[in-house]
Description:
Elements: H1 4-38, E1 53-59, H2 66-74, E2 81-88, H3 94-104, E3 108-113, H4 119-129, E4 134-138, E5 143-144, H5 148-158, E6 162-171, H6 177-200, E7 210-214, H7 215-220, H8 231-241, E8 245-256, H9 262-282, H10 296-324, H11 338-357, H12 369-372, H13 375-396
Parallel strand pairs: 1-2, 1-4, 2-3, 6-8
Antiparallel strand pairs: 4-7, 5-8, 6-7
Amino acid sequence: MLDSYSLLEFLEDYVFYYPLAMSIIWMIGASYFYMRREQGRKTLPELEEYPLVSVLVPARNEEKAIGSTLKAVLASSYPHLEVIAIDDASTDSTAMILQQIESEEANVRVLMLDKNMGKPYALRCGALASKGDILLCIDADAYLDPYALHWIVAHFINGPRVGAVTGNPRVRNRTSLLAKIQVGEYSSIIGMIKRTQRILGKVLTVSGVIAAFRKQAVLDVGLWDTDMITDDINITWKLEKRFWDIRYEPNALCWILVPESFRGLWKQRVRWAQGGVEVIRRHRDIWKSWKQRRLWPVYLEYVLSVIWSYTYVIFGCIWLINLVYPTGWPEVHVLPEWKGSLLAFVCLVQFLVGLSLDKKYERHIPGYLFWVIWYPFAYWLLMALATVYATPRALFRKMGKPAVWTSPDRGLFTKL
């Protein structure tokens, strides 16, 4: 049986080697995906048909962004689409702007909700009102690339069991250190994870900012659950459990705004962490069925990441207490020693690989390597704290009530 010191050493090794192992897995998986499914794909796929795509744009208090978002959608090169904007009881001029656009554009419809019911409810309403067999869901501050729908629709045409296709979010506000770090994060963390999960066969979550769904698949799983704080993660798991195929299409670009204040970033990451734990809580029944075995590693990886966050934060607290007050507690190491230096080096290599893979979409993005190297020092602690804070909220939150939203801090509204 392990004594307390050997257990402590094990936990110290876990804090360092868990992210090290995941970094290596992500680099291998993302590189394989790039060479197998991404490299050399430069021309638009030729489509034999152009099925109607219903673009759902839920919005609440988005008067600064909604006009530009719909303008970008309407500028799409895809020839057969309709736009359904859902105003979730906005208290600003969002509804007025949407009604003006509706009066000017024949293929734009607006749904007006009398009460703030949250994004999942708005998406349910939009899906039920839609005419298309494919639903593209984008955020109200996102700029859709003109050719994104061609890349997305090709998956649905060629794969009858494709239930969802998630696109490639690109950060467009890059004026602050936080925003520049997130530019690298979306390439060297989020993009690499999605590539790797696609190779392994199970994508943990589509990107809520740009995700397309086969309407038949969404209806098959009962639409979006209105009581989940993160609609994108939950709908992905519902589709996976019904054996619909989830794909990642890096050529489907969408330009987004990210938080540029610590408060805004904290609120976003707490919501992400809470949503992830809520999904783990709701879908814990996958362990009862052998048919769901391919989801077990994804489930386990998320649980291990939560354990890592708690261990990391607890070790940090013990280290700080020992630093200012001699308690006699066992010494723990949180500052880089040889293991920390090794981890920092591997992370740097991961960032370099991720930015290099995305050079295809942004030629100058490798230049953000200087900014993303701050990720381990600032973001690891932030995300660990967010997970520690959000996990009890997710585990003990009374489910059933609509998960409503407030407009987040997304930084400065800049044009491409």
